[in-house]
Amino acid sequence: MAKKNNIGANRLVVGAHYGVKDWLAQRVTAIVMVVYTLILLGTFLTAQNFTYEGWAGLFSRQWFKLFSLVTFFGLYYHVWVGMRDIWMDYVKPVGIRLTLQIATVLALLACAAWTVQILWSV
């Protein structure tokens, strides 16, 4: 029976090996949030008469609703990755960590549902 080589690409990786995917996801979502913030800031600073009607008019456009939704969903995924890593790094008892992760997921899902409700009520 041949011995398996456990180095390099053949290495057996177990556990929380999220690595590059989540690192990249956080960078991409951060870029989306920065672009969204710059657009909002530019709109706010260049508006002549910035009133509720102007704000509601901005959010009444379908493309802006979709961009807002993508940005907020990116924010929620960004938060999930960060909080999951915090729970995994600093909370050692498995039961408490799992409870905190479930509470985080439920809170983020509630925020996502509320976001959809707010955006499509305008």
Give the topology, please.
Elements: H1 19-46, H2 52-60, H3 62-90, H4 94-119
Q: How many individual β-strands?
A: 0
Q: Ends: how far apart? A: 68 Å
Which structural class matches the secondary elements? mainly alpha
Order of helices and strands: HHHH
Q: What overall geometry do the principal axes of the alpha carbons give?
A: elongated
Largest sheet: none
Q: Helicity level, as a percent range?
A: over 70%
* Contiguous uncertain segments of 5+ residues: none
Q: Helical stretch count?
A: 4
What Rg do the Cα atoms give?
21 Å
Beta fraction:
under 5%
* Mean pLDDT value: 88
Quick summary of this structure?
The chain is mainly α and 122 residues long. The chain has four helices and no strands.
Write up what this structure looks like.
With 122 residues, this protein is an all-alpha fold. Helix content is 75%, strand content 0%. It has helices at 19-46, 52-60, 62-90, 94-119. Helix 3 runs antiparallel to helix 4 (94-119). The longest helix is centred in the middle third of the chain and has 29 residues, at 62-90. The chain is elongated.
